[in-house]
Amino acid sequence: MGSTSAHKNEGLGRRDVIKRSAALGLITVPTMSFLSACASSDSGTDDSVKKGKTSAKNPLGVNETAALDVVIFDGGFGQQYAIDAEKKYNAAFPKAPKVKHTATQKIQSQLQPRFNGGTPPDLIDNSGAEQMDMGVLVGKKQLLDLTPLMDAPSIDDPSKKVRDTLRPGVLEMGQFDGDPVWIMYYAYTVYGVWYSQTALDNLDAQYPENWDDMLALCEKAKKKGIAGWTYAGKYPYYLPFSLYPFIGKIGGREVLDKIDNLEPNAWKDPAVKAAFEAYYELYKKGYILKGTPGMTHIQSQTAWTKGKALFIPNGSWVENEAAPTTPKDFKMMVSAPSSLDSSDKMPFGTIWASGGEPFVVPAKAKNPEGGMEQLRIMLSEESSKNFTKQVKSLSAFNGGTDGLTLSTAMQAGVDALKKAGDNVVNPRLQDWYVKLQKEQIGVAGIGEMMAGRATPAEAIKKIQAFADAAAKDQSIKHYKHQ
């Protein structure tokens, strides 16, 4: 599977030959409280609209004259796919006012006051840098259980429930503790290492399937004035998109589960140490594009599409988000992380893929049935195909690609999923503990290491302290893999 070390004659794997270049860190990390991202206020009045009559055409009992308030994150996927689906809602309920559609990148800033006041929208695409903490929202009972939507007949085949039309793992991602479904992840995201096949062809290279080959290719590129890697330096929680499955490959998915479960010393696992030290090599050997730690996700993607770096960790929204700067002959591709060495517990091809773009219906929504019906419309084959055509990403609907010509990036994602088979991992930290994942592990831990301001040992020590503090924080709800 391409995971054999290039140093066969040394009799050592990559874990043995990677040397730490700095002394063990001795920094002290104070215990930090894990603050909620969304307050739980009981203010506001209960002025929900009266539920309508259920029928074959209206299985959720939408009030046919009630207004619907939708807020969409205007990011990599844009908002047109949602607007198109809202038009179908208006056509289905012509007596209702036109759907109130709001698009923003400031999800938390704009919506937290509305949650606090008890007047949230009916449907929210809770995504982006200002994503509200999903674990907190669930723990504080701020969200509606979407089980009625999951059990409703699907648009295309009323004999099938909506839950039976979803891609594997999507429904489970919305379940935090037991059977209730709190979140509908609409996109189906392939995370990994993204690259230009044209750029590799120009270097007479193939995607490196082991870490020695990765470093060799980065060195070859460096001699041509091209960096090996770049990433969203201001938002280094993008790095786990390839780093977490790398850890899973090295030590097995149980290592990722222990990390998700906030188990003691989970971050001190040898697989974490090996993965961090491998990534630190990219910094030490000068394979990271200069200036990367100060770049936004857009700036790093632009540098990448302009050919300044070969690889970038990202999700499948990147094709649409980077489209304005992507050359026509770029041949955008994605791959699973390289193997570390032949003793990896999971094969090359192990990848992170899961539901993305989380949609929620607030518990205090005025028109919750309308919010769920809008999602039911979005989970039709027609809306799914429209989403895929517009934003070049798969949706949670299991299908919707028949008759479509897929881009190289989308085809690479489909091929990567096929190659992975059962070796798909799905870390849950970014769903369960948003602040821990983004601000602490991402920015304060991994980000500092990749910028050269902390050694792997220091970063691990700091991250473990953050995880321990979160585990002890009784103000937040804790979740575990079942």
Structure characteristics:
10 strands, 482 residues, alpha/beta, disordered N terminus, 10-stranded mixed β-sheet, single chain
What report would you give on this structure?
Helix content is 38%, strand content 11%. The two termini are 31 Å apart. Helix 2 (80-92) packs antiparallel against helix 15 (381-391). The radius of gyration is 23 Å and the shape is globular. The longest helix is centred in the C-terminal third of the chain and has 17 residues, at 434-450. Mean pLDDT is 90; it is low at 1-45. The protein has 482 residues and is α/β, with parallel strands linked by helices.
Fold blueprint:
Elements: H1 14-17, E1 69-73, H2 80-92, E2 100-104, H3 107-116, E3 123-125, H4 134-139, H5 147-151, H6 170-173, E4 184-196, H7 197-202, H8 211-223, E5 227-229, H9 240-251, H10 253-260, H11 270-284, H12 297-305, E6 309-314, H13 318-321, E7 332-335, E8 351-360, H14 368-378, H15 381-391, E9 394-395, H16 408-420, E10 424-425, H17 429-432, H18 434-450, H19 456-472
Parallel strand pairs: 1-2, 1-3, 5-6, 8-10
Antiparallel strand pairs: 3-8, 4-6, 4-7, 4-8, 4-9
Helix pairs in contact: 2-14, 2-15, 9-10, 9-11, 18-19
